[in-house]
Specification:
It is globular, with a radius of gyration of 22 Å. The two termini are 40 Å apart. The relative contact order is 0.18. By secondary structure, the chain is mainly alpha-helical. A hairpin with a 2-residue loop joins strand 3 and strand 4. Strands 1-2 form a two-stranded antiparallel sheet. It has a two-stranded antiparallel sheet with strand order 3-4. The protein has one domain: Proton glutamate symport protein, CATH 1.10.3860. The protein has helices spanning 6-24, 35-52, 54-72, 77-104, 125-132, 140-145, 151-156, 160-175, 180-205, 207-222, 227-257, 261-278, 281-295, 300-313, 316-332, 339-355, 363-374, 380-413, and strands at 29-30, 33-34, 108-109, 112-113.
Length: 423
Amino acid sequence: MFRLKLHWQILLAITLGAVAGWITGREWNLFGLSFYDIYDFFGTLFLNALRMLVIPLIVTSITSGISTIAQKGTIGRLGGKTVGYYTITSLIAILTGLALVNLLTPGIINGEPSKLLLGLEGLDESTLEKIHAHGAGDIAGIFLRMVPPNIVKAALDGQFLGLIVFSLLFGYGIAKLKGPHRKTLTQFWQGAFQIFMNITDLIIKFAPIGVFALSAKVTATTGLSAFQPLAMFFFTVLLALGIHMFITLPLILKYLARVSPIKHFKAVSTAILTAFSTSSSSATLPITMECIEEKAGVPNRITSFVLPLGATINMDGTALYECVAVIFIAQVYGIHLGIIEQFLILFIALLTSIGVAGIPAASLVAITVILTAVGLPLEGVGIILAVDRLLDMARTSVNVYSDTCGTVLIAKSEGEKGILVDS
């Protein structure tokens, strides 16, 4: 039986939801139950399901990922180059996104925050105080929150930065164990992570229903004008991703790796298109390795280490998207985030990009982590769901392309010959 792929289902749900919300408004009723309340119920249910997975996904994904990476031995010349490249390019991507979202202000329409256009209520005074409290201290306070005295209380209070650092240290500790204990714990955390990923997959299958409800709810409240700020957000993210993919990374190839960016793009185009269609850097990995080895001429001893590691920790596009999304949500609510708050966003995005799984929509969970850390309401995730799937396809392509650029750069730095000569 013919079945639409998930991204087409979500696009259809956005359209149908907008039409349904525009037709029914807030007044239509069915057997005494308003359509608006139905939209609100299913939309809230979907958001609650995503929130439910935040803490377990943070702990299991980062712990299992770091324990596996550390066991493979990232300490050394090749490992240092790889991690260094991924960290620097992710940081450049984040800064590109922050610059554009602050310059274009997609959440501000005609000089006013777009919360009314999106049917959102203003924030109360306690929430505003919590957000601006970050500016009262200094950057040292961010590092103090990385090591909370009570990790359980910090998680319950929504202070996820400490939870992320604890998970990183816990994964490293597992990798340092000897004998059967290391194997047992590694398998346990990998199994736990897979369980929560299976639950995430199940919830994502219901995304069209949740997106339909959220789209209908917004349109029922505000009309079709709600899509103006979303269009601006969509354009801002695409522009930032485009700058990173077609300017920053090619410059790295040309001036650091000393290879032709055009030849490289042709060599890995199959992997990029696969990443775009699947929205999964992990699923694209076999094709990426084939392109780099067969078409670009990078030896297996480099690709077998750099590319799998990149599929785990190198998320340039994802980190960029997370930052732009959070700043956009703050702009929608009319909240100005200062240098301290934006540094916090940058720092957490860099950390969470390591633990974000290479699957569709995983960054939504990371965005909820950043929103909680900054103090913004988690309902903000619902704003961007309507365009998330298309942007997911674009940012995954950037992630995979950055992996391939890093592999070529590291291979050249290792003195490998014959790279991108005949491709």
